[in-house]
TrEMBL record:
Function of the molecule: Catalyzes the first step in hexosamine metabolism, converting fructose-6P into glucosamine-6P using glutamine as a nitrogen source.
The UniProt record lists the keyword Mitochondrion: no
Residues shown, of full length: 242 to 601 of 601
Protein name: Glutamine--fructose-6-phosphate aminotransferase [isomerizing]
Compartments, record wording: Cytoplasm
Catalytic function, reaction form: D-fructose 6-phosphate + L-glutamine = D-glucosamine 6-phosphate + L-glutamate
Keyword Transferase: yes
Active site as annotated: 355
Lineage: Bacteria, Bacillati, Bacillota, Bacilli, Bacillales
Leader peptide range in chain numbering: none
Domain SIS: residue ranges: 43-182, 212-350
Subunit structure: Homodimer.
Enzyme class: transferase
One annotated GO molecular function: glutamine-fructose-6-phosphate transaminase (isomerizing) activity
Keywords: Aminotransferase, Cytoplasm, Glutamine amidotransferase, Repeat, Transferase
Amino acid sequence: SDIDKGTYPHYMLKEIDEQPAVMRKIIQAYQGEDEKLTIQPEILDALQEADRLYIIAAGTSYHAGLIGKEYLEKMAGIPVEVHVASEFGYNMPLLSEKPLFIFISQSGETADSRQVLVRIKELGHPSLTITNVAGSTLSREADHTLLLYAGPEIAVASTKAYTAQLAVLAILAAVTAEARGRDLGFDLVQEMGIVANAIQAQVDMKEEIEKLAHDFLSTTRNCFFIGRLMDYFVGLEGALKLKEISYIQAEGFAGGELKHGTIALIEEGTPVIALATQESVNLNIRGNVKEVAARGANTMIISMEGLSEDGDSHVLPTVHELLTPLVSVIPLQLISYYAALHRDCDVDKPRNLAKSVTVE
Ligand code: AGP
């Protein structure tokens, strides 16, 4: 590639490290003259006119969409559905009267998403693409585009594009909320600054996080991620990251679902990584950790200051509760990176995978 790794051994590590700078870049890019966050009026109009938003995406971008739904519903008050592009393409649900389609794609070239865009355009529905690549197919073919400003992402495993997607979705939700006269009760620019610092603190803790990866994952064949609410969605992303680059079989689950089946898989030493950043379910997820620990699981708890307990494996600095995914995903990215490195896997180019999936 013509993008230099510099002193980094892998693009993935470089891209993980770039995330604080990407956060600052995004804030700047979306600030208007008066430093207030702004979105093009045509896009705000499109959101205002819609009675329901349909987020379409694949892989990591789909996981960002799950969090995007939380942002757009909780901040802007617009109902949202999130769909896997390859499923939606063949089984379109009943649509609302005034849908707006939002395509989330790092590359802007994912064939499964492109097919959906072609279909919904035929039906006459409006569309917005959120992408890292200006001039990409999904950007050119949609009515509107919002850019991620993450800089080129080379590693197959998506890292900075995911956090950039979350940041842009938060900005879109906050600015739409304002346009609709809804009071958020917090200043997103200020909270995003706190997030950028918290991400920096995480990438500065590589040695500690590498040790966690070593202690929990060096010999395992499988690993489970559990969480509730947004922590569940971040767990899905953590599991995808781990399986794609380290080839450890990994799955993410909603903590409360364990007893409905998955807990049967827990054996002596099975690694279970739990996220605990959501106050309203902190006791619940900790209960779930006790349930798996009682069956022999090797548990790692990643919690947030203010919700942490003695003995937690890793404690994140406090950020606004809606923005926790931007920070909690960082140790998961690094754990995957080091797990893959310890197994001598090809971190930047995992087997069987392409950076963007341009065929169906
Ligand atoms: C992420 O680590 C994966 N490599 C993959 O899931 C990716 O997110 C997916 O293929 C979607 O790509 P896109 O964002 O470019 O559309």
